[in-house]
Every structure is written in structure tokens, then in C-alpha cells.
Amino acid sequence: MAEFRVPERHAQLLEFAQGLTPPAGWKVEISGDEIIMMAGPSVVHQRNLLTVREQFDAHRPSGLMPSENTDLASPNVGKLRNPDLTYIPVSVVELGGNEVPAELAEIAVEIVSVSNPENDLVGKVRDYPLMDIPLYLVIDPREGRVVLFSEPSGGSYRRRWDGTFGDTVPIPAPFDFELATTGLIRYSS
């Protein structure tokens, strides 16, 4: 079988993005031919992320580690994304570097930002299944909503679970628990 080669255009964009030095508190992502720079998160964002992470940590399978703001790379589809939280194999440390192959991630968790909600609600819903990330959990403090996407197939997620803050989210294997959302808080108006 022939070895897969990254399209030259995507390789050049990835190399360019990796050479950028964003200001402190900013992060860089790639989606297709677009470089996306995002400002650091708010205190409400961080508080909600902690609420979610503590529950995932309590149900973390052996051999997986949590990682916040890790670059997940899928150069074959021209994607470099940086979820707020992901769980990846501990063995990725052996790979070295600053990027993790996206297909190794078990989940991507995003807390929707006030400044660029379309990135989390549209761009990443499009990109994460293409990157073979099996679960995508979206927490939206603007609207008080929670969405869990699962079962990527053919470039999109086949399943979608919708709820509001206060609902219990059924998180499937490998975590297999009920995520309580009562502790999540909304952004102030």
C-alpha cells in the first residue's frame, strides 16, 4: 500500500502556522486554508472547564491523560485544532513535539467563547469528525446549552445529544458516565 502524503499546500500552511509566535494568551488553529487566532479564555470559561474536567478525571480510563490546549494535528485533511480539553494516550509523550495526531484523542471538549462562537459551533463540528475524534462535547455558556456529538462517519457525526445546563449528559465509552451540568455557569449579559 502506498504511503499517504500530506498535500503540499496543507504542509506549507502547517509549517507557516507553527512558525508563528502569537501574543501571550493566544492560540493558533488551522482549518483548511484558514489560520485562526483566538484570545485567551475568560474566568467563567475556565470555571466551566474545571467543572467538566474534574468529572472526566474521575472517570478517566487508565492509559489516558487529560490535556488542555494541546494541538491536535490532521495534516492529511489540513486541520490543526486546539481543544480546551482532550484526553489522549499517555504514550504520546514518547512522540515528543508539540502536536498529537488527532486520531489518538478520545474526546474534544470546547467551552464556546463569546468572541468567536462560530469556531466551536460550526468549524469544529465540521473538522473534528474529519479528524477522527470520536466524541465532541460543546458547552455553550452564552445560551446555557450542552451538545454531545458522537459516532463520526463519512466526515460528520451520526449522533447528536442536546441539553441545557442542569441536564445530565450521557458520556459513552471509554469514559462511560453521566456528566452533571448543574455546576456550569452562564456568561453575564
UniProtKB/TrEMBL annotation:
The keyword Hydrolase applies. Pfam families: Uma2 (PF05685). The keyword Transferase does not apply. Keywords: Endonuclease, Hydrolase, Nuclease. Residues 22-180 form the Putative restriction endonuclease domain. SUPFAM superfamilies: Restriction endonuclease-like. CDD domains: DUF820-like. InterPro entries: Nuclease_put_TT1808, Restrct_endonuc-II-like, Uma2. GO terms for molecular function: endonuclease activity. This is Uma2 family endonuclease. It comes from Kitasatospora phosalacinea. The lineage of its organism: Bacteria, Bacillati, Actinomycetota, Actinomycetes, Kitasatosporales.
